[in-house]
Amino acid sequence: MFLGVILGNILPGLSNSLGNWQIASVSIPVAVVLLFMMYPIMLKIEFKEIINVKKNSRPLLVTLVVNWAIKPFTMAFISWLFIKIFFNPVIPDGLANEYIAGMVLLD
Fold first, then answer.
1. Alpha helices, H only, 11-85
2. 11 falls in which pLDDT band (50, 70, 90)?
């Protein structure tokens, strides 16, 4: 992040150039960086254990419930609290809703 801030200050046109690299409205630089972030995690997956999920499905069910039923709503509340209440004076109304949506999606 630090490097990105420095590059943005030194080469202000770089962010616009990188932002224009898109396929089907997906930013190619963002997709590449996300791939580098996820790749080490994907290496730790033991695919043999996926077959055994039928024997012990509780961890999978807990993960599904937490990730799809609990976390989005708690993040919606937390992001609403910070963006609409605490940072309301510094964030324009039009951007506030976009920030909230982005925070929920990043959760």
1. 12-19, 28-43, 47-51, 58-65, 71-80
2. confident
Q: How far apart are CA 75 and CA 59, in angstroms?
A: 22
Q: State the Cα–Cα distance between residues 16 and 99, nearest whole angstrom.
A: 20
Q: Measure the CA–CA gap between 70 and 68, rounded to whole angstroms.
A: 6
The share of the chain scoring above pLDDT 70, in percent, equals 100
Alpha-carbon separation of residue 52 from 8, 45, 47, 57 (angstroms): 48, 13, 10, 9
* CA 80 – CA 68 distance, rounded (Å): 18
User: In this predicted model, which residue has the larger pLDDT, 30 or 74?
Assistant: 74
CA–CA distance, 26 with 45 (Å, rounded to integer): 26
Q: How many CB atoms lie within 10 A of CB 56?
A: 9
Q: Are 88 and 94 in contact (CB under 8 A)?
A: no
Other C-beta atoms within 10 Å of 100: how many?
Answer: 20
